[in-house]
Write a structure and sequence with these properties.
Elements lengths: L12 H8 L3 H48 L4 H5 L4 H16 L3 E5 L23 H4 L4 E7 L2 E11 L5 E10 H4 L2 H35 L4 H17 L3 E5 L5 E4 L1 H7 L17 H9 L3 E8 L2 E12 L2 E11 L4 H23 L6 H12 L6 E7 H4 L10 E8 L12 E2 L6 H8 L3 E3 L6 H4 L3 H10 L3 E9 L2 E10 L8 H38 L10 E8 L6 E9 L5 E11 L1 H18 L5 H22 L10 E8 L4 E7 L5 E3 L5 E2 L5 E2 L12 E4 L5 E5 L11 H13 L5 H10 L10 E8 L7 E6 L5 H15 L6 H18 L4 E7 L2 E8 L19 H8 L2 E7 L2 E9 L2
Helix pairs in contact: 1-2, 1-7, 2-7, 11-12, 11-17, 12-17, 17-18, 18-19, 22-23, 23-24
Length: about 900
């Protein structure tokens, strides 16, 4: 044998080396050939199994289709009712079997007794198979081995028009009938597999030959030794080495590169842009461009980066970069980074502090920004008056408004604590002098420890060792003090950091002062608005009422509501809205609410009251336009006015540009009654119309403002539908209804006020109402007195007989003398005793003082003296004079 290097070269040395399997290429060749062979065998087996599965599925589908077609064919069900079903069905079944190619079609009754069969000797015998699902109305298929071989059969029910199963049809077909595909295709598959194996073997040989050239015929052991030597050299150098391939993927990084860049363990194979590197460093490595000693800041290191692109056959295929730690520039980079961080902090303070007009939230934003970027703990203490929107006057206590820290268990005063700093404390000196005060070493600061000896000792033991106290100043006004505490960093605060703290607090002070001013204005507006809204509901028996009022978070608005008792046990419900926010809207709302009170005292119908209110709004607009050109007019004011009468159980409603009311019937159904929509108040030109509703007892009338059903994110139709859904699910009581409506609202900041009233109707029973028709004859007055006496006795109100007879005598006498027929008298027992006299005249009575010589003119004077209240209510056909007396 000649040595290896002396062997004569053969004609195909690469192929022989590959087939020999000694080199890496040879081993790869053998492995790929085995894999291809296994794939071909797997493909053949899978094809055979698939063909068998398709054969079974085809048999099942054909048998089901034939059975269902025969079961639903005309005359099949009728044949079951004939005297001899076999005579009718056997010829049809055989003809269908021959036409469809199935092996049998069997028709049977519900007991499984056959009526048809290809073999006539089996007619009348019981069918073999699972019939239970078919008897329940379902189609059942099963695969069995019968006398004619493996087959698939289906059983289908025959149903009458009522859906009752009256018979069964079974059709079956052997798998051999539909099979055979695999036997026909197998030679073709084997031929294709042989060709694929040959092509794959040839391709694998070519690939292995190329691999042999690239590995230079080295075996696995030789390549392993070469890689180990290369790896040892690469990781032994004290410079970081990075090899980046195409698409910016990291192919290799030595140990020094991992250390300098703090790369993750799985960095190889990932894109350098996804390794968490600094943006400039990642961009350089990803670009592959040439670089010489470029300095990059990577965390606390300044790295000098050199990079050269690698080429393969003249084409760029990646890059190699080396990294060197420039320790001599670290001090300079630290100072530059510190300055940049301070600038960033001041920028973030301008952007992140003062995002809301809330004093407490602004103070919290200051503490959140300072920790941990500037201090380990930060506290903000504000004067009590500042939190309420005022200005601190004299020496007052401060309240801890915000506290932030790297830990939650620091022994500092908690948020909400009232604090009075002693004169020697840094905070008190900062408040007095208006300048920042630094305590570099708290354990050596007796003035600070005098604030609270026990707590001061705990703070020092906790590790807090340095403090900067900075006053919160907005111009000449001192709002509080901010304290910055340090624990982790051993060095105390220095003069540069004190300057940064002052700048940081100065920016926050402007935002806190703005929030304080807004709080003051908002509190004034809210106070005005609250004073203009009803603080309690009047006592009345006609309606059971619950209400809710939610002010807008953006500012006070002009929504209002009212419940106004009227004469005759009636009650008026009012809901209104002045569009807009602020003091002007609240003041205008108060004027309109007062006007509604005054107009309701006249007992006007809803449409007439809205007409007067419309004229008032127009006059307000005109006066404000003449006096102040910059005053916003009251355009957009809306109102809904409803009057409910518990005697007739009728509700009269009119609305001026307001959303329609909702009505919940006693059975729980919800609808929106058709109430004519008049124009908003102040526009004028069109009359208002009324709608009269018959309300069953225990109905619930829901009145609201548009803030409940309309906002920027949805239109009013969607809001009304959501309201309908909420009312449908609400409980029976008005309180439960209000709660359900508000809980169904979408969460978020309310952009408009919401006023909501839910009124459940009550009826004044017929036993509490007495009414008489009075003829136009003075003698009838005595009859009225007698009837009144009897009624009061029945109501256990004999104590009121004298005054009631006297009041009604005067009122009836006036109606007979000065009024017109018909004349009616009505008494109601409600929270008071109500007497009413109706006549057809529209002449208004007047109270006057009679002289000593006058023979008359004292009737209404006596009525006014004996009754708590009295008045006149005008109707379309006359007027009603009424008087109320308290019940004993």
């Amino acid at each position: 044998m000649l040595p290896r290097e002396e062997q004569p070269p053969g004609r195909f040395p690469g192929v022989r080396a590959t087939l020999g399997g000694r080199s890496v290429a040879g081993q790869v060749f053998v492995l790929q050939v085995v894999i291809v062979l296994l794939l071909v065998v797997a493909a053949v087996v899978a094809l055979v199994l698939q063909v068998r599965y398709d054969t079974t599925e085809e048999a099942r589908n054909r048998s089901v289709a034939v059975a269902e077609s025969f079961a639903n064919a005309p005359g099949t069900r009728e044949a079951l009712d004939s005297p001899d079903p076999t005579a009718v069905l056997q010829p049809r079944a055989e003809a269908a079997r021959e036409a469809t190619g199935v092996d049998f079609i069997v028709v049977m009754n519900t007991d499984g007794i056959r009526y048809t069969h290809p073999k006539t000797d089996r007619i009348g015998k019981k069918f073999v198979g699972n019939l239970e699902p078919a008897l329940q109305g379902r189609v059942v298929t099963e695969q069995i081995i019968g006398t004619i071989g493996p087959l698939v059969q289906a059983v289908v029910p025959i149903k009458d028009p009522d859906g009752k199963v009256v018979g069964l049809v079974s059709a079956g077909i052997t798998t051999a009938t539909v099979g055979g595909t695999a036997d026909r295709q197998l030679p073709l598959v084997l031929t294709a597999a042989a060709v694929a194996l040959a092509l794959a073997t040839a391709g694998t040989a070519l690939v292995s030959r190329r691999l042999l050239r690239q590995t230079h015929g080295l075996g696995p052991d030789e390549m392993t030794r070469m890689y180990e030597h290369h790896d040892a050299v690469l990781h032994a150098v004290r410079e970081g080495v990075l090899i980046v391939g195409t698409e910016g993927r990291l192919l290799l990084a030595n140990d020094e590169a991992h250390r300098l860049l703090d790369l993750p363990a799985d960095a190889e194979g990932r894109r350098v842009l996804h390794l968490g590197l600094a943006p400039d460093t990642a961009e350089l490595l990803d670009s592959g461009r040439m670089a010489t000693d470029e300095v990059h800041l990577v965390k606390d290191r300044l790295l000098a980066v050199n990079q050269r692109p690698t080429t393969l056959r003249g084409r760029p295929s990646g890059s190699v970069a080396t990294l060197r730690d420039s320790t001599e520039l670290r001090a300079l980079s630290g100072r530059a980074e510190e300055a940049r961080e301070r600038l960033n902090m001041l920028y973030d303070a301008g952007v992140g502090i003062g995002t809301s007009l809330d004093v407490t939230r602004t103070a919290e934003e200051l503490a959140e920004l300072a920790v941990p970027r500037f201090a380990d703990f930060a506290t903000v203490d504000l004067f009590e008056a500042v939190l309420g929107g005022g200005q601190p006057e004299g020496v007052t206590r401060l309240r801890r408004t915000a506290c932030g820290g790297i830990r939650k268990d620091a022994p500092l005063y908690p948020v909400g604590e009232e604090i009075r700093f002693v004169d020697s404390s840094p905070q008190a000196r900062a408040l007095k002098d208006g300048q920042a005060v630094i305590e570099p070493r708290l354990e050596e600061a007796p003035g600070w420890r005098a604030q609270d000896l026990e707590r001061s000792a705990q703070i020092v033991d906790f590790g807090i060792h340095s403090l900067v106290a900075v006053p919160l100043r907005a111009g000449s006004l001192v709002l509080g003090v901010v304290s910055f505490w340090r624990s982790r960093k051993a060095e105390p605060f220095d003069s540069d950091e004190v300057a940064l703290a002052e700048e940081l607090v100065a920016r926050a002070a402007v935002s806190i002062d703005n929030a304080r001013r807004y709080t003051r204005e908002h509190s004034m507006a809210v106070t005005l608005q609250r004073s203009l809204l009803p603080r309690s509901l009047p006592e009345q028996n006609a309606l059971d009422i619950a209400y809710r009022y939610l002010p807008a978070q953006a500012g006070v608005g002009g929504d209002w509501f009212d419940v106004l008792p009227l004469s005759g046990a009636r009650v008026a419900l009012v809901v209104g809205d002045v569009v807009g926010h602020g003091l002007h809207a609240a003041a205008t709302m108060g004027r309109l609410r007062t006007a509604v009170h005054n107009f309701s005292a006249l007992d006007l119908p809803p449409d007439e009251l809205l007409a007067l209110l419309d004229e008032l709004v127009a006059r307000i607009d005109q006066d404000e336009t003449e006096e102040e050109a910059d005053t916003a007019p009251v355009t957009g004011a809306t109102c809904l006015y409803a009057v409910y009468d518990p005697v007739s159980q009728r509700c009269t409603i009119a609305r001026a540009g307001h959303p329609p009311p909702a009505l919940i019937q006693p059975d729980g159904s919800v609808d929106f009654p058709d109430v004519p929509a008049g124009p908003p108040l102040g526009l004028g030109g069109l009359p208002f119309e009324t709608a009269e509703l018959e309300l069953a007892e225990d109905s619930r009338l829901v009145l609201y403002t548009d803030g409940l059903v309309e906002d920027r994110g949805r239109d009013i139709d969607e809001g009304l539908e959501l309201l309908r859904t909420a009312l449908t699910r609400a409980g029976r009581s008005p309180e439960e209804t209000c709660q359900a409506v508000l809980e169904a609202r979408q969460p978020g900041r309310a952009s408009d006020d919401i006023a909501l009233i839910v009124a459940r109707t009550r009826a004044l029973g017929t036993d509490l109402v007495a009414e008489w028709q009075v003829p136009s004859d003075p003698a009838a007055v005595g009859q009225v007195r007698s009837a009144v006496t009897r009624t009061l006795q029945a109501w256990d109100l004999e104590e009121l007989s004298f005054t009631t007879e006297l009041v009604l005598s005067e009122l009836v006498t006036n109606a007979i003398r000065y009024g017109g027929e018909p004349i009616r008298v009505r008494m109601l027992r409600d929270r008071s005793l109500i007497c009413e006299v109706f006549d057809s005249s529209s002449t208004s009575p007047h109270l006057r003082y009679a002289t000593m010589t006058d023979e008359g003119g004292r009737g209404l004077f006596l009525v006014a003296q004996l009754a708590d209240r009295w008045g006149t209510r005008y109707l379309p056909a006359g007027k009603v004079i009424w008087a109320e007396q308290p019940l004993p």
